Amino acid sequence: MLGVSERFACRVTGQHRATQRHEPVSSTPADPDAALRGWLRQYAKDHPRRGFRPAYHDARGEGWIVNHKKVQRLWREEGLRVPQRRRRKRHGTSTASDVPAADAPNRVWAVDFQFDSTTDGRPVKIATVIDEHTRGCLGGLVERTITGEDLSAELDRVAAQRGRYPAVLRCDNGPELACNAMAAWADGELGLHFIPPGQPWRNGYVESFNSSATNASTSTASGHWPTPVSSSATGNTTATTTTGGTHRWDTNHQPATLPPAPTERLSSVVDYFTGSGHHPDPAAGTQSRLTG
């Protein structure tokens, strides 16, 4: 206005030059990005499957002078995000009329899975079947993969050995148990009792056995199952199951540590963990029969 430079005018008045570049607070809106925030909220409502990157390109296409970093910051501050499609976990449908009581042998069997790995890093899947009344381990599988068909075949083998099926099979909602194969296998033979999700203590007997079996089986310094001596393309884990089978035999033959005691020693249960078909006890019989 006076025909002098900004530098000279600031020097004369004693003001910093930055004071001449900031707009007065009275003329500055409370949120200068309010319009862009509103546009982003409407954009997210109209395009729920798009994120901030498409929003940035569309904003530039509509004339907004903004870079992608500011769009990302405002997008995050507004809490906008692409909704994730959560896969619903399948829950099993219990066919038992009420909560079963294991008041006799072969009344309630329990089955549960464990997951571990051998020292070479490959996964191992372990299935355990116990009788809740005798607390004895009836059978199990140790394989690289176990499906519902594999488990039903093992349960058939245990039932054939013991001469009968249980009244109820207690289990959790794992995919190997809450599947069509298990439902078809149990149909007309026995009842399935699925414990509520997230409550493993409702299947406490088999969980307790699995805990002690894991401690006995992970005998290596790394805390993993020993790697099989020979590993085929099918994932045979026979050699990895020796320690697990030994613990199972010890459990079934030490009733003092697992009350109540079995009515008869389970000496002839095939040691399915070792795969040998022979029991380490030389005095073991050829056929076990439970009374009751």
Q: Quick summary of this structure?
A:
30% of the residues lie in helices and 12% in strands. Mean pLDDT is 74; it is low at 229-244 and 255-292. It is built from 8 helices and 5 strands, in the order H-H-H-H-E-E-E-H-E-H-E-H-H.
Q: What do these coordinates show?
A:
This protein has 292 residues and is α/β, with parallel strands linked by helices. The chain has helices at 6-13, 34-46, 52-61, 68-77, 148-162, 180-186, 204-217, 242-252, and strands at residues 108-117, 123-131, 137-143, 168-171, 191-194. It folds into two domains: 6-77, no CATH class; 108-257, Ribonuclease H-like superfamily/Ribonuclease H (Nucleotidyltransferase, domain 5, 2-Layer Sandwich). Helix content is 30%, strand content 12%. A hairpin with a 5-residue loop joins strand 2 (123-131) and strand 3 (137-143). The protein is rod-shaped. It starts with 5 loop residues before the first helix and ends in a 40-residue tail after the last helix.
Core attributes:
292 residues; alpha/beta; Nucleotidyltransferase, domain 5; 2 domains; five-stranded mixed sheet; 5 strands; disordered C terminus
Give the CATH level 1 class of the largest domain.
Answer: Alpha Beta
Distance between the termini: 111 Å
The main sheet orders its strands as 3-2-1-4-5
Largest sheet: 5 strands, mixed
CATH homologous superfamily heading of the largest domain: Ribonuclease H-like superfamily/Ribonuclease H
Q: What Rg, in angstroms, do the CA atoms define?
A: 34 Å
Q: Assign the CATH architecture of the largest domain.
A: 2-Layer Sandwich
> How many strands appear in the DSSP assignment?
5
Flag low-confidence runs: 229-244, 255-292
Mean pLDDT: 74
SSE ordering: HHHHEEEHEHEHH
**Which range best describes the helical content: under 10%, 10-25%, 25-40%, 40-55%, 55-70% or over 70%?**
25-40%
The CATH topology of the largest domain is given as: Nucleotidyltransferase, domain 5
